[in-house]
Design a protein that fits this description.
Rossmann fold, four-stranded parallel β-sheet, two-stranded antiparallel sheet
């Protein structure tokens, strides 16, 4: 499908980027293995600091739906309470993944992240150059420079906070966040980014000793939905939903 939509050459670039990240993930030096470092930081936040969620914040409109993709990748893979030995995990596993582009988040949920009672780790994605290379310059800076200024400013504000005599303007800081900065969002970097998160999720599954590659929880809902659907099919005229639910319970 991507080959038809983007053209085969761009599709090949996505595959090349993913392959480059696949090879990088084989690096045995943990200090140079980016997806492994990301996995370990996630383990630290989840199992040692006990933060239940992670916000994915891309400062790129081209990645508008990327947080939704990572919801499926991460939560469907590592949302498990049973390990590979068939025993219940005695620790937390996959966190809740959510997010929006940074330009949206700054005017919606950033207030909670800055000053709320719950700590939410952030993974911030950005690029040095604009996606299409077409940029506007206003007051001596480009739109991309303004975007990056917001990205870095929010990261610094979350980390160091601010002291003020007015408690409402006091930010305690020490809000965990990290920046993944690329040169430009193009097919190659997109492929590398997709593979980066796939390896991160796989590494975390290895550490938690869970099977990241089955989705039994999803299957249960499908089976029950099939049973419920058969009740509607047996009756020609519609009956109240409450009656359908009671019949289902007495199946």
């Amino acid at each position: 499908m991507l080959g038809f939509i983007l053209g085969f050459q761009r599709f090949k670039e996505i595959l090349k980027g993913a392959h480059a990240m696949d090879r990088h993930a084989l690096n045995v030096n943990p200090k140079e293995n980016l997806p492994l470092l990301s996995a370990l930081l996630g383990i630290w936040n989840r199992n040692f600091l006990h933060y239940p969620t992670v916000a994915i914040i891309p400062y790129s409109q081209g990645l508008l739906r990327f947080p939704a993709h990572l919801q499926q990748l991460d939560m469907e893979s590592n949302g498990k309470r049973i390990d590979k030995r068939g025993e219940a995990c005695s620790f937390s596993t996959g966190p809740v993944i959510w997010g929006e582009p940074g330009t949206n988040g700054q005017h919606s949920f950033y207030q909670l992240i800055h000053q709320g009672t719950d700590v939410v780790p952030l993974e911030i994605l950005g690029f040095q150059k604009s996606q299409l290379g077409l940029d506007l310059e206003v007051e001596h800076t480009t739109s991309q420079q303004k975007l990056l200024s917001n990205l870095f400013a929010q990261s610094i504000a979350l980390a160091v906070g601010q002291k003020n005599e007015n408690p409402n303007k006091t930010f305690i800081g020490n809000r965990p966040n990290r920046i993944l900065l690329g040169e430009r969002l193009d097919p190659f970097s997109l492929g590398a980014l997709l593979a980066f998160y796939e390896h991160k999720v796989a590494f975390q599954g290895f550490i938690w000793n869970i099977n990241s590659f089955d989705q039994e929880g999803v299957q249960l809902g499908k089976k029950l939905a099939t049973k419920m659907l058969s009740l509607f099919g047996k009756k020609k005229e519609p009956f109240p939903l409450g009656e359908a639910y009671l019949r289902f319970l007495n199946w």
